[in-house]
Amino acid sequence: xxxxxxxxxxxxxxxxxxxxxxxxxxxxxxxxxxxxxxxxxxxxxxxxxxxxxxxxxxxxxxxxxxxxxxxxxxxxxxxxxxxxxxxxxxxxxxxxxxxxxxxxxxxxxxxxxxxxxxxxxxxxxxxxxxxxxxxxxxxxxxxxxxxxxxxxxxxxxxxxxxxxxxxxxxxxxxxxxxxxxxxxxxxxxxxxxxxxxxxxxxxxxxxxxxxxxxxxxxxxxxxxxxxxxxxxxxxxxxxxxxxxxxxxxxxxxxxxxxxxxxxxxxxxxxxxxxxxxxxxxxxxxxxxxxxxxxxxxxxxxxxxxxxxxxxxxxxxxxxxxxxxxxxxxxxxxxxxxxxxxxxxxxxxxxxxxxxxxxxxxxxxxxxxxxxxxxxxxxxxxxxxxxxxxxxxxxxxxxxxxxxxxxxxxxxxxxxxxxxxxxxxxxxxxxxxxxxxxxxxxxxx
Length: 444
Prior knowledge:
Largest sheet: 2 strands, antiparallel
Structural class: mainly alpha
Low-confidence stretches: 1-11, 440-444
Strand content: under 5%
Strand order of the largest sheet: 1-2
Order of helices and strands: HHEHHHHEEEHHHHHHHHHHH
Number of strands: 4
Shape: globular
Distance between the termini: 41 Å
Number of helices: 17
Radius of gyration: 22 Å
């Protein structure tokens, strides 16, 4: 009887790296970004603390062989290491020379923030050991993004900020200078649990390809797919109601990648569902389509676009001062100088050409990892997941051209998590390739 009981009892999954990444996602996406630790003098959100702890665990795991941490070369981990080297070099050079007190203070806090994000990427790359655990993390990521979208849609439609009612022990509300519900045209611009409407829109846009993947996967597996369809609808509508060019460009990039890489029958389905969704949203929310169209049709006269391009001359002067390693990450203060809604241009100022190449290199490495998965894997669902991650990462990368990505914690954390998971997906595909018999072996 005891043997039968043991056979029938489900095996309990032990806490592993994927579990800890899930904990980080909950802290990053569900806890409102305005809430920070109340018992420390610096601005320290809970997700940042979790990220730093993951960095300590990753370093400890690399020193032993008993905790299941992956080791060995990985293109994503190499790219992240180069980005780390560029950040440390910039910080060393910047703090060696004289800096105003306000800039030095921000440089110190900024190196902690970026180190925590780097830790998240390498931990996700090395600690998520199988495609099943990676799948679990990405499902939670999609679910959390849908929650953010729901909160944002309530803000957009009813003018009620559900995130403002959240109060947790040990946390205080940090005033970041942004309104929870800004206005554009006749509409409110939601933020969900993030700091800014642009950040909200980009988070939703990056989740759209994951939603499409899990709808298709559930239908292929014969399992209920309505919940994934609801998640897809929420994040899709969230990216539209953000009224952000960054979000719409991100969705467009993701859609193009998904359509190009999907099988033919799914291309048609994706195009039809996407077009129907856009038309339905425009009918349900009168004036939404006209507002979105106006954001692009009058782009040359848009004050926000003119403000972005007007600062290029001043930015060029800053670049010439420290072209190789920059003036210091975080030291180009928007309150002191100007706001640059272009992360690549801002990185060129703060981290120089080496930092810019390292940042672009991370996005390219993640893209290469997902493309490589599609090349070596025979598992169609794994190939589809690779396409979804490729679309999400490139949506974040392209969005950085119109958005100072690293200045916003939620979007930054999500991008680094997805970059790390691209490396984990490549490890899983390589391991699967090693353990899967070749056709000749099967025939023998």
